[in-house]
Specification:
about 325 residues, five-stranded antiparallel beta sheet, about 0% helix
């Protein structure tokens, strides 16, 4: 029996839930969300994961006119800039903005971005890929590419089709070798996909990968996953590419015991999803370190504890 690695928790335990970490190219700054357990708007904090006992700091100073709610940060490894979602409160619609890597300056607030979430940088920082749930999105949600300076939509739908079915898509991950090649949490816009009312249902996603060229086609990451009806054995969401574009890590509740992280080798024609960590930690939203050998993620130190930020050495799986 394989002994699974255990997470190393790096954030102090507080009365907040810590979620959705991102890490910079030097691996000396991680940004993550903090939501007070008793209620209140989500804020972003940063820490240095290379330190033995890192001390979190607010990412935005109190003097900066930043949105009250700040979530879903992503750091561009080539420029250091940060993309995130902002809203007037946690329960209000989100939009997209960018900031410098110290959080001292907001660079761009994208007009017309209400309903865009999970902004993810291209490798060179020229574009952002977003989960587009704006009223104009078709289908809604889909995955759109936008110019990172102007906010202009450059490609309305990167998901395209799966056979004759158009794709709902979100939680995108941009391949570092091709800004048009994405992995995402998706589902076909097909009759009978799930037993819920028609339309997108976030608990019924597989990980899909698009063709990387237009017109776009998408197929399940796991080739055996059926596309006529949802099979919970292939459920997945929140993918992230390794720095070399070979591996995808994603979260899934397919074991029936809570969310766990899985790894898939896209260069191996016979690959299967490999469990990385015991699901008792409820781990989610992993991203690769720049060296490709470790992950940063959120997980529960104990079953009753709120989420905290951790790292995980996965070098033995590569």
């Amino acid at each position: 029996m394989t002994t699974l690695p255990t997470p190393q928790f790096i954030s102090p335990q507080t009365d907040s839930s810590q979620y959705r970490p991102a890490i910079d190219a030097s691996a000396t700054m991680a940004i993550y969300e903090c939501t007070p357990i008793g209620g209140g708007d989500t804020k972003l904090y940063s820490l240095d994961p290379s330190q033995t006992s890192p001390q979190p700091q607010p990412f935005f100073p109190a003097s900066l006119d930043a949105p009250n709610s700040r979530t879903r940060a992503d750091i561009c490894w080539s420029t250091g800039d940060v993309a995130l979602n902002g809203a007037s409160a946690n329960n209000e619609p989100v939009s997209v903005l960018t900031a410098n890597n110290s959080g001292s300056q907001i660079i761009t607030r994208f007009s017309g971005s209400t309903g865009w979430s999970y902004p993810q940088w291209s490798a060179d920082g020229s574009t952002l890929t977003v989960m587009n749930a704006a009223p104009s999105a078709s289908p809604r949600p889909c995955t759109s590419q936008v110019d990172s300076r102007s906010g202009t939509v450059t490609i309305a739908n990167l998901d395209g089709m799966n056979g004759s079915a158009s794709m709902y898509g979100g939680m995108p991950a941009v391949n570092p070798n091709n800004a048009l090649s994405i992995a995402y949490a998706g589902q076909p816009q097909a009759s009978g996909w799930h037993g819920q009312p028609p339309g997108y249902q976030q608990d019924y996603n597989y990980i899909f990968v698009n063709s990387g060229t237009g017109p776009f086609e998408s197929a399940p990451l796991e080739p055996d996953a059926p596309t006529t009806a949802f099979d919970p054995a292939y459920q997945g969401r929140a993918p992230a590419w390794s720095p070399d574009g070979r591996y995808l890590v994603f979260e899934s509740n397919r074991l029936g015991s809570g969310y766990a992280l899985f790894l898939f080798d896209t260069h191996d024609p016979s690959a299967q999803a490999v469990l990385l960590i015991d699901s008792s930690y409820g781990e989610q939203h992993a991203k690769f370190f720049p060296d490709g050998n470790s992950l940063i993620l959120c997980a529960r130190p104990s079953p009753s504890a709120p989420m905290a930020i951790a790292t995980l050495d996965i070098s033995s799986f590569l």
